[in-house]
Specification:
901 residues; mainly beta; 6-stranded mixed β-sheet; 5 helices; disordered C terminus
Length: 901
């Protein structure tokens, strides 16, 4: 309505804008005023109408300045005004206008703001029980909304039905212009199967409807059943009846109906989602009773029942039978039960018609106890062993369970055995066992048992062995002859078998040939080392027919025998092995023959075997000294091969005793003892090192090695150098060496002066850094740098011997080399000129007096000898000698040009 009035006013003032806007309580909105015409705007203002005719100035822009009559954020220009306003209350709702003033006309537009409030949604679930029925109430509240929100419900995606759902709405208005709407959804729990309901709130301040889901309680229909099982306690039987409810929610109310005046004790168990009510009933008192379980649950429209009928027990119709028999038949009670005499393991089965859980059985024979060998095992009477005549008689068995009983009587007779002759299976076998011939004659699987005997020639003495076995009524017998493996004559043995199934006795014959066997004699030896001593063991083996051979030992041609160890062993082929051995220190019989003499009944004369004992040789010594590759110590090794004792091997001089290591190796007939000694070169350099072995009779064996004396005198530089310090000064000599500044792959060549076989050469700069080496040369692979110049120290070492040289490396350019060559050429030319002048002067004054000549020569000689050592000066001689000496002396002037580059 307000917007319509402003439109009428706008027609008078040439205005054509009227708009509406929604503002959300608690948020901010932008109010925009803009002019798009062609007039020149001088002022723009935002006003709020308090009444239809009265307005309040809020903000604006005039004369290049912004004015603000409230807590606004403003952006403005002559044709544009933007105001950010916070919506803090409902009072913000109303009419607003934007006015633009120009020198000719005024323009304005109107805006109507409506304030809305976004509601807060809360859902609460409560439950209550009314008259035994459980109800749930879901409360959905939309608080602080403007205008009033709308609430609806969804159950499984659909609006709730009526019944069972009811919906109640309440509305509350607040002083700040907002309101609260509350909707309550109520339903009985057992009629609602969904586990959640959804509250849907609609409101203009919400971009989409707000869905809030609440979890509600649901009931589940249980599975109910009744079961019964029998248990035994203290010898009595009881029925345990179970009423079971499983998988239901909430808990099921279970009761049990027994239809008896007594109320037995009940037991209730709950296990997870299962409930169980049980009662224990005596079997004899409750047989045939009907038991009922009653179940109450909210999901049941009416009570559920489950019934079970406890069985009635009976015990009757006893029967007996003899195994083996067809147990599937119904056997009438026999007056006579016949058993076969001699049958083993006879079983009399006892059958009874019953449904009792168990029963007792008591059996007797002829009103007395059961005979020996007859036992009641389960439901059977079992005869242990073969059936005999005393097992016949009247048997009575009584079956009982509490008051129920059944009786079984039967008469057992024993039939005599029927004899059926079964001829035996006859076999003969010849084999050798434990050095004897074994001949076996057997008659197997016969009924009755056969009679077996042997017939032998007169004068033959043998051993007999008899065996008899029975199986399933058949009999097997065998008779064995034990004879020597080697017989002096041929014999024939005859086996005679008698049996009722044979019309006449049967026989089997075996012939044993004459045995002639020559003894097999072997001799062997072996050696072993103990404590550095060699011992020899000699064996003499004789394989012959029984009895075992007699073995004797002799040394050389003497008749004196030596002690030995004798053992014998009989083989399955009838032969006997005799083994004799002697054990002795090898040095006792060294170089002699050892003889083994064998005597046996099969030999016409004793036979001998001979073995030679090797001669005793002194041990061999060898000594070697080597330099170890990965150790600073030298190693001296003394090897002793032969009969060596470790304690008698030593090194000389005495200082070598510590430390030493000893190792022994045995190889067949030799023993190798190795004595090793590690020492530094400085301790024995230039000395003799001796290995000594001391024999028992004070005789020694020696081996000596000389340890050389090494030295390194100096490290020599092969490149052209000049000393910076004199050879005769106290300090070390420093050599100066020049390298070309721009050359590549330059080397400083070094040479070691001494007698060492090898050496270790290392060079480093004055700052301690190592330089690149190529054998005995320092290599500069690239052009010389400032780091390459300076002092270099090189050291050569061989164990404790060392030598050092110092080199000052400098660089020279081509210009410096040219100046140096020029100076050297000028110096050489001056020297040559001076020499020619001197020679000319000498030739001119040759004829002068001798005194002047001698004086001149003496002066020149002194001049030549001055740079040398005093030993080079000659003593004064005679005039004649001087004249002769003048012809022999050559004059030279040495100019030492020293320059520092």
């Amino acid at each position: 309505m307000g917007c319509t009035r402003l439109l009428l006013l706008g027609l008078v003032l040439n205005v054509a804008h009227c708009r509406e806007m929604l503002a959300i309580l608690g948020e901010a909105i932008y109010l925009n005023c803009s002019y798009v015409g062609e007039s020149q705007i001088e002022r723009v203002e935002l006003k709020r109408y308090i009444t239809s005719k009265k307005a309040k100035r809020l903000a604006g822009f005039s004369n290049g300045k912004i004015f603000n009559n409230g807590n606004f954020s403003i952006q403005a220009s002559s044709a544009y005004l933007r105001v950010l306003m916070n919506v803090t209350s409902v009072e913000v709702e109303g009419k607003y206008s934007c006015e633009f003033e120009s020198g000719v006309d005024n323009f304005f537009s109107t805006l109507f703001i409506t304030v809305i409030a976004r509601p807060d949604v809360n859902v609460i679930v409560t439950g209550e029980t009314v008259n035994g029925t459980h109800y749930q109430s879901v409360s959905c509240s939309a608080t602080g909304g403007r205008p009033v929100p709308q609430i609806s419900w969804l159950v499984s995606g659909l609006p709730p039905s009526d019944p069972p759902f009811t919906v109640n709405m309440t509305k509350t208005h607040h002083s700040d212009g907002t309101s609260t709407l509350r909707s309550i959804l109520r339903f009985p729990t057992h009629l609602q199967d969904e586990d959640s309901v959804t509250c849907v709130v609609h409101h203009p301040a919400l971009s989409n409807p707000e869905f809030t889901t609440a979890r509600v309680e649901t009931y589940t229909k249980p599975n109910v059943t009744i079961k019964a099982k029998m248990v035994q306690q203290e010898g009595n039987d009881f029925w345990v009846v179970f009423c079971i409810s499983s998988g239901g929610s909430p808990a099921t109310d279970i009761s049990l109906a027994l239809n008896t005046s007594e109320e037995p004790q009940r037991q209730t168990d709950t296990d997870r989602d299962m409930q169980r009510v049980s009662v224990q009933l005596p079997t004899t008192e409750y047989q045939g009773h009907n038991i009922t379980c009653i179940f109450h649950h909210p999901k049941f429209t009416h009570k559920e029942t489950r019934n079970i009928m406890l069985p009635t027990f009976y015990l009757s119709s006893a029967q007996s039978y003899s195994e083996p028999a067809d147990n599937s038949e119904d056997f009438p009670i026999p007056e006579l039960l016949a058993l076969q005499e001699g049958d083993a393991g006879a079983v009399i089965g006892l059958k009874v018609t019953e449904n009792v859980p168990r029963y007792n059985v008591i059996c007797k024979k002829d009103d007395g106890v059961l005979p020996d060998g007859v036992e009641l095992l389960g439901r059977n009477l079992t005869i242990q062993g073969p059936v005999e005549h005393h097992h016949a008689g009247l048997y009575e068995c009584v079956f009982s369970y509490h008051h129920l009983k059944a009786k079984l009587k039967f008469n057992v007779t024993v039939k005599p055995p029927v004899v059926h002759y079964v001829p035996p299976t006859v076999q003969t076998e010849l084999r050798t066992e434990y050095g004897r011939r074994v001949i076996e004659c057997s008659a197997a699987d016969a009924v009755p048992a056969a009679n077996v005997s042997w017939l032998l020639p007169e004068g033959v003495s043998v051993d007999f062995w008899f065996n008899s076995t029975s199986h399933n009524g058949s009999h097997s017998v065998s008779e064995v002859l034990l004879l020597p493996a080697c017989l002096p004559l041929e014999i024939t043995a005859e086996c005679v078998i008698k049996h009722p199934a044979f019309e006449k006795p049967e026989s089997r014959s075996i012939t044993l040939p004459l045995c002639v066997a020559h003894p097999n004699i072997t001799i062997s030896s072996s050696t072993e080392w103990r404590g550095g001593r060699k011992y020899t063991k000699v064996h003499c083996s004789v394989d012959s027919a029984a009895p075992a051979a007699d073995v004797t030992w002799y040394v050389g041609n003497s008749n004196n025998s030596i002690a030995s160890l004798m053992e014998s062993e009989a083989h399955d082929d009838g032969l006997v092995s005799a083994r004799s051995s002697v054990h002795f220190l090898s040095s006792i019989y060294a170089g002699q023959n050892l003889m083994c003499m064998v005597k046996h009944s099969s030999l016409e004369a004793p036979e001998t075997r001979t073995i030679a004992i090797p001669e005793h040789k002194p041990p061999l010594l060898s000594l070697s000294v080597v330099r170890q590759r990965h150790s600073p110590l030298w190693l001296a090794v003394c090897d002793c091969i032969g009969e060596c004792v470790e304690s008698k091997l030593a090194f000389l001089p005495e200082s070598t005793k510590n430390p030493l290591s000893v190792n022994s190796e045995y190889g067949g007939n030799t023993l190798k003892v190795r004595l090793a000694y590690e020492f530094p070169l400085s301790s024995h350099e230039g000395q003799n090192l001796t290995c000594v072995y001391q024999f028992d009779h004070m005789v020694t064996e020696k081996r000596t090695v000389h340890i050389p004396r090494y030295y390194i005198s100096s490290v020599r530089i092969l490149n052209h150098t000049s000393p910076l310090r004199s050879h005769y000064s106290d300090g070390a000599v420093l050599y100066r060496l020049s390298l070309h500044k721009d050359s590549h792959v330059q080397k400083i060549l070094l040479q070691i002066e001494g007698n060492v076989p090898e050496y270790n050469l290392s060079c480093q700069r004055s700052d301690g850094s190592f330089v690149q080496m190529d054998g005995a040369a320092i290599i500069f692979p690239s052009a010389l740098t400032e780091q390459d110049k300076g002092l270099y120290i090189c050291q050569a070492s061989f164990y404790h011997h060392t030598a050092t040289v110092s080199i000052q490396v400098e660089d020279t350019s081509e210009e410096q080399m040219f100046v140096l060559v020029a100076i050297m050429c000028l110096s050489s030319a001056s020297a040559i000129t001076l020499v020619l002048v001197i020679i000319l002067c000498v030739c001119c004054k040759r004829n002068k007096r001798t005194y002047k000549q001698r004086e001149s020569l003496a002066g020149l000689t002194a001049l030549m000898q001055e740079p040398g050592s005093p030993q080079m000066k000659k003593p004064e001689g005679t005039e004649k000698d001087s004249e002769e000496y003048a012809h022999l002396v050559g004059y030279a002037i040495v100019i030492d040009v020293k320059s520092t580059v």
